[in-house]
Amino acid sequence: AGAVRVEGRAWSGRALVTSVRFSADGGDTFTPCTLLDDPKDHPYDWVKWCVEWQATEGEHELVVRAADEVAAQPLSAVSNREGLCNNMCQRLKVVVSGDLSVRQYMGVPEITAPTWDGRL
Q: Coil, helix or strand for 84?
């Protein structure tokens, strides 16, 4: 357990990304993320974000939710006849046990721990 920097990219395609929020409890509560890029510089480009997560031992469901100038990303799938528009928040179930450390693997942060079960 311990502090972990979580980072990623957000993209809208229709408007400026205005915020990104992180949850470690399946979406019950969210923490604002820091936007590392200014979306106004490139309105239709990916926006880097990060947040520090105080990981505790146990099971967690990680969720990241972005919003743009028009609306927030849906928490669940919006059904349509074509089966398209899968822009809902993706969820990652993880189990944390022991002390965490973060290292770089091909430029991507990788969380390592004595026991780490990253189930989807």
A: coil
- Whether residue 103 contacts residue 110, with contact meaning beta carbons closer than 8 Å, is answered with yes
Q: Could you give phi then psi for residue 77, rounded to 5 degrees?
A: -65, 140
Q: What are all long-range contacts of 26-31, with beta carbons under 8 Å and residues at least 24 apart?
A: 26/61, 26/63, 26/91, 27/61, 27/63, 27/65, 27/75, 27/89, 27/91, 30/65
Query: Quick check: 116 and 95 in contact, CB under 8 A?
Result: yes
Cβ contacts of 103 within 8 Å, gap of 6 or more: 109, 110, 112
Q: pLDDT tens digits for 41-62?
A: 777 788 899 999 999 888 898 9
Mean pLDDT across 91-107: 63
DSSP 33: P
Residue 67 pLDDT > 80, yes or no? yes
